[in-house]
Design a protein that fits this description.
347 residues, alpha/beta, DHBP synthase, Rossmann fold, 2 domains, 9 helices, 15 strands, binds threonylcarbamoyladenylate, binds magnesium ion
Length: 347
């Protein structure tokens, strides 16, 4: 199959109409969102959604997020609640996904047999317009091959999906850089299943309490059943071994300078550290305090690290608080919990 890669903005109505009809008629289209690129299919069409799993090589028991163009369209696919609308008013459209009891119209293949469905209303204007023009809710996981970092540029999608899908819409770099925050809600509280740009602190402004699911910060115990199937998969692991350095215990600069002398390695450093290191395979993440920039750069740099063909990659252990929890959650998975000077004194 030839894969069309087309530059678009929210004024590209004719292209978005064409993309919308591909989706409505059972085809797949990759599209930009504010978080990462998605691989979309008509959420009502079971066989179209099964094609998503095929194109990604995704395990069938990992459910998809269903995207709607306005928060009230959740009614078409799920049973909402007053707390859903309170959250929607504050955070939708935006990078928040809410798990709700599902209606029968959504095929069980989309939700991997669960009786709940993940609902998200993206803020990105191209994504939003596409859903509107498709005229159906769009089921879309991140548009990467399973096991690779989520794509934040159309080129990343092309690298993974060329020849597998008919169309990729190129709307430039995804702004946030990591996937949406995923929560499950009860009457007045929330459980955080995946951290993203909508933080625990922000959710606490609306919910009575927010519990952070255990798997967000740590590896699952063998006997633990994940609340969200996605948690149990070893997410992205770079080709090189990734080590996180707890810089409250280890002098980062001294440590990695020595590694630069003795190993084939890449260093994910803060911008302020560039001039203190040898100018070789440096992957600057942003300024130390600029968490938004670091989030934006995260998957771009992890993909770059793979291209450098080094044996090891060293990076700072991110903070697990506030906006940084989303970075922590992705990095701790990517490094298979190799923390130098860190958690439980490992390594
Ligand atoms: O930002 C995002 O959310 C992107 C863009 C494209 O919208 N999408 C995305 O989808 O990251 P995906 O499929 O890569 O991640 C969806 C996560 C998985 O961890 C999945 O297990 C979880 O949401 N999930 C989906 N439906 C669920 C459900 N009914 N109950 C619990 N977890 C669910
Ligand atoms: Mg994904």
């Amino acid at each position: 199959m030839r894969t069309e890669l087309i530059k678009v903005d929210d004024q590209s109505v004719e292209i978005l109409k064409r993309a919308g009809s591909i989706i409505r008629e059972g085809g797949l289209v990759a599209f930009p969102t504010e978080t990462v690129y998605g691989l979309g299919a008509n959420a009502y069409d079971k066989s179209a959604c099964l094609e998503i799993f095929k194109a990604k090589g995704r395990p069938a028991d990992n459910p998809l997020i269903v995207h709607v163009s306005s928060p009230k369209d959740a009614e078409k696919i799920a049973y909402t609640s007053p707390l859903y609308y309170k959250l929607a008013e504050k955070f939708m459209p935006g990078p928040l996904t809410i798990i709700l009891p599902k209606k029968d119209i959504i095929p069980s293949e989309v939700t991997a047999g669960l009786d709940s469905v993940a609902v998200r209303c993206p803020e990105n204007k191209i994504a939003n317009k596409l859903i509107e023009l498709a005229g159906v809710p769009i089921a879309a996981p991140s548009a990467n091959s399973s096991g690779k970092p989520s794509p934040t540029t159309a080129q990343h999608v092309f690298d993974d999906m060329d020849g597998k899908i008919p169309m990729i819409l190129d709307g430039g770099e995804a702004q946030v850089g990591v996937e949406s925050t995923v929560i499950k809600i009860t009457e007045d509280s929330a459980i955080l299943l995946r951290p993203g740009a909508v933080t625990v602190e922000m959710l606490c402004q609306v919910c009575q309490s927010v519990e952070i699911a255990g798997a967000v910060k740590a590896e699952l115990r063998a006997d633990e059943k994940p609340l969200s199937p996605g948690m149990k998969y070893k997410h992205y692991a770079p080709k090189a071994s990734l080590f996180l350095i707890d810089d409250s215990k280890v002098n980062f600069i001294e440590f990695v300078k020595e590694k630069q002398r003795t190993e084939s390695c890449a260093i994910m450093c803060y911008d302020e550290e560039i001039e203190l290191l040898e100018n070789k395979n440096l992957l600057p993440v942003g300024k130390r305090e600029d968490i938004k920039k670091q989030t934006h750069n995260l998957f771009i740099l992890l993909r770059k690290a793979d291209d450098l063909l080094v044996d090891t990659v060293y990076a700072h252990l991110p903070s697990d608080e506030g906006e940084s929890l989303a970075i922590y959650n992705r990095m701790i998975r990517a490094c298979a919990h190799h923390v130098i000077g860190g958690i439980n004194g490992e390594d």
